Amino acid sequence: MLGPTRRTACAAASAPAHCRALATEHSPPTRFSSATVFHNEPASPKILSDSVPGPVSRKASQVIGQFQDPRAHVLVADYAKSNGNYLVDVDGNQHLDVFAQIASIAIGYNHPTLIELAKTDEFAIASMNRPALGSFPGADWAETIQKGLLTVAPKGVPHLFTQMDGSGANEGALKAAFMAYRARERKEAGIDDFSAEEASLSSSSFASLTPSSPSQHNNVLTRLSSSTQMASCMNNASPGSPELVAMSFKSGFHGRLFGSLSLTRSKAIHKLDIPAFDWPAVSWPSIKYPLDEYASENAEAEARTIARVEETIVEWAKKGKKVAALIVEPEHGVYLIVDEVQTGVGATGSFWAHEKWQLDHPPDFVTFSKKMQAAGYYHAESTRPSLPYRNYNTWMGSPAIAMQAREIISFIKSHGLVQHTAVIGDELFSHLGALSRRFPGMINNLRGKDHGTFIAWDAESPQARDKFVAAMRHEGVVMGGCGERAIRLRPMLIFGDKQVEVLLEKMESVLKSLEGK
Amino acid sequence: MLGPTRRTACAAASAPAHCRALATEHSPPTRFSSATVFHNEPASPKILSDSVPGPVSRKASQVIGQFQDPRAHVLVADYAKSNGNYLVDVDGNQHLDVFAQIASIAIGYNHPTLIELAKTDEFAIASMNRPALGSFPGADWAETIQKGLLTVAPKGVPHLFTQMDGSGANEGALKAAFMAYRARERKEAGIDDFSAEEASLSSSSFASLTPSSPSQHNNVLTRLSSSTQMASCMNNASPGSPELVAMSFKSGFHGRLFGSLSLTRSKAIHKLDIPAFDWPAVSWPSIKYPLDEYASENAEAEARTIARVEETIVEWAKKGKKVAALIVEPEHGVYLIVDEVQTGVGATGSFWAHEKWQLDHPPDFVTFSKKMQAAGYYHAESTRPSLPYRNYNTWMGSPAIAMQAREIISFIKSHGLVQHTAVIGDELFSHLGALSRRFPGMINNLRGKDHGTFIAWDAESPQARDKFVAAMRHEGVVMGGCGERAIRLRPMLIFGDKQVEVLLEKMESVLKSLEGK
């Protein structure tokens, strides 16, 4: 089965209920009330200004605009006053936030556990002594990771590479996949890997080497010889910079740097005018909702996509461009990178979304960021590069942020927030289903059943979507658009009964007011 | 004149003394003693273990190795005990640190001003409420930037784009350069830019558009039409993903993600097995030292490089691949990106290294990270992309880290650390010159005159360099290698007389012991 690997994936695949068991491992209570932790959390939204953004937000945005692009501003926030599920803005408006900084807030604004961490010596020291982690890790690095990120390592990928953000995490995993692919090719050809001494030579050392000719490249031994590889990679040329490619799915989003943006196929605005790698993409199956009504059609669509993935791998290999990495089940020795930058850390009702895919083998790389605060990828020891300093950078993540991840994970576990989110998500989904029947045409293709609160639907048109999101903002609910006409819910893991009630009430009111307009 | 744009640049170009004036603007005292701020800073290195790394470091490194690649570890640090210029490790060894986390520490370990910031409410709130800065900036964002990063904006580039690290900063600037280049092409062709509505369409909207044929691309109007651009960029193809290229210099280092790594030409180990863009690179002039002895030869070498840059731009344009960005003075409408990730923030004796280049026009983009803690690029308003969400990502830097930048900048200014570093660097350079004459062959091509403490030299061979660096570590001085046989000094801005004395004493002792071996 194909898994939802797209970071902005408005869709979420279905999963049998027994997979939910994974979420219960550390979760004695099944429901959580944010009021038990956030004593000052508002009970409902409150909009004081005539419009959202209000006049104070608009003025503050103009000030920022003097030095930084303000055109994507939604509002200017007052983070000191924000609490739990509620985002407060500089006009004093209180918004129920079901977008959560594009899925970056895990356990609520100004969570007391995190604020407590912020005031500790360990956090101050970690924040203010920026280490080059790959060369000078701190005494507490191992423990921070062992008590945090390692406790939620997906099955089969117990090793860790840390980065600063989600794009960096995906590109780090992609680099590791390319290196592992080439190492395997060399091994299969019976050729020794290059040595640290060879690889550490600087560009001037290769000046005397004549560039290898195409005919030489046809000889696998020559093509894989160290000197040919070294000299050519310094010129960004094959074989040292190999003709390998990475495959992704159309409509997927994997980041915005040059490698990750080449994988991203969501919208033109992300990609226009930026040079990109000539890499293949395959159409995502057009899934119809509700899933149980369209089971056989959806199965056929998925089968067509799987066939297309296989064909593409073969077609591109014939062009001399082997697919080294892919964001779906492994085929043809292709490494599987699961991008859990947005889907990871509990919102789908399991800690990692791919737990529900029932894979025969674990993925090769699982990337994370956003709710985790820390970013990076999990992998197996077998994909550690042949030499140190190959996948390396000065900072390689941040110890202070790894501490935040540790506390977030710990709170999620001790309060059963993954199971809580699975239960709340089921209820929310069923209520949204009822709403969609009451307002036909306004909530289409509702998706995310059995996927916690990771729920999305389509409006009738892009314009209707924008109108709906704007009207919800005026009611004090911050929501996010996605794709052309979709709306995605990305609430925090502390989103509970009370907030579901508010969200549904506000949605009903807005849908009524927009009905027939 | 060509400027040293390489982040790991072991060389630093010369500059007339009057340029030093730039550094004095905010600097009443010319010399700073770290003892005035760091009351517990060691007076000299102390090595307790039989070897460096000591047994406790080695054991701690093995523990990390169970989940993360440990092969680039130098030692495991005790950051809580580190102070000022001194890095303490888990064996209790005290090292004078002139590498400073690959140039990432600006004003000393556990600087009291920064530890004080760490304990404030503003820092706790900023750290623990991760915003999507481009859409939901906080109430204090403008002030944090106005009191910090904006106060040191290089001349001519008063706008700011923030990112999470140096590679991201360089790629962000590169994306902005490509977008600005294409916008200018469209404008020159009298073609309207695409609209937000067109650009926000998702990939499925372009499915019905047939891919544009090569012959169509020859027609500039067709090539620049919105629909052709949108449809092609979704397939990573020209013209939407343009055939524009970026040029860099051989031996330069600009980062390790897919775009920045394509610019990097330092060592094969950074590049092997990673697919790269087919982009041009030009040899850096082979400068001979001391500069005053080789003035005319060096001028010729620089002239040859400039000619080669021009030829390359013309040659690649003939192939249909226009150079859009370059890391040197602007030519042919090429945007100039100055990579100050390592050179920025004072260590060269001016706040920005390019202040010494005497450019007729300001650079188009100046990137920063490392010592600034915050990362990003400065630019002119004219290179702001045509639409919001084009150069955008979820996090876009960090408010907490921008506060660190604010305090670091403020301390640098109030204590005249740029001028201090200029003065200390001059003294250090002159002492190193004397050492090089006493130990002929062991310190070659000493460079960085009039460039603060941004000083480097070549050992006799890669082996001799490694031996020297290892021997210095056993004496309690952490130094960094660079390139094939170079040693680079990257001390903090609080590096003063006392530390110069210790460094020279230890160097002399090590050079003596290695002499004739």
UniProtKB/TrEMBL annotation, chains A, B:
PANTHER family linked: 4-AMINOBUTYRATE AMINOTRANSFERASE, MITOCHONDRIAL, AMINOTRANSFERASE
Pfam families from the UniProt entry: Aminotran_3 (PF00202)
Superkingdom of this protein's organism: Eukaryota
InterPro entries: Aminotrans_3, Aminotrans_3_PPA_site, PyrdxlP-dep_Trfase, PyrdxlP-dep_Trfase_major, PyrdxlP-dep_Trfase_small
Family the UniProt entry places it in: Belongs to the class-III pyridoxal-phosphate-dependent aminotransferase family.
Keyword annotations from UniProtKB, A to Z: Aminotransferase, Pyridoxal phosphate, Transferase
Record organism: Rhodotorula graminis (strain WP1)
BP GO terms, sorted: gamma-aminobutyric acid catabolic process
UniProt keyword Transferase, yes or no: yes
Record's GO cellular component terms: mitochondrion
Cofactors required: pyridoxal 5'-phosphate
Transmembrane segments: none
Protein known as: 4-aminobutyrate--2-oxoglutarate transaminase
One Gene Ontology MF term: pyridoxal phosphate binding
